Amino acid sequence: MINQFDAVGTNRATCLVPYIESFESRLRERNYTPGTIKTYRVLVRRLAMMMEARGIVPSSLAVERAAELVRGEERKAREPHKCANIARRFAGHLIDLGVASAPPPTQQQIAREKLRRGYEDYLHRQRGLSQRTIFHSWRFADRFLDYRFGDADIDLGATSVGDVITFLQLLTSKKVPFRDKTPATHLRNFFRYLFKCNLTPSNPLRAERGQAL
What we know:
Oligomer: single chain
Shape: globular
Order of helices and strands: HHHHHHHH
Number of helices: 8
Distance between the termini: 29 Å
Largest sheet: none
Structural class: mainly alpha
Mean pLDDT: 84
């Protein structure tokens, strides 16, 4: 996707260099793989070059503006929002550092944050899961929501088992063998929670005899 930029500007100081190390440190704390961190680094450097070309300074980088700048960098049809989401996460990191100011949250962001809080509370209080497991549970749920809905409003009731299967196939079809067996479990727990809270009319991942998920 963005490997073509591996050699572009990697040795040149950019406006985002002071913040890349702390961003990568946060990714490592969350157990991102070295390969994924490299992908993030390359994209952030590309984002910095675009910002400089347009005279945008880090303190004025809004989350959605960051996504717009890299939208043309998407290369894989099955991951149409990957670059935009990486840029959003980095812009969010700048906000966490106090470098940039957070704009008022959109209705979509408010809805997703409410969903996250409710799901994490359910996993903690009713399932007794560790904070590490809870983090990864939401991480896969969040990635699925990005894959299924992108920038559109989230319609949980419109999700089908086919959407989940396609998403899992996307994870397992990467060049590096994907040996983690937990994504299906995390997503099964997520949809169990949605059904329990009446956020979906049915549970598309209900375990049936002979069903792969």
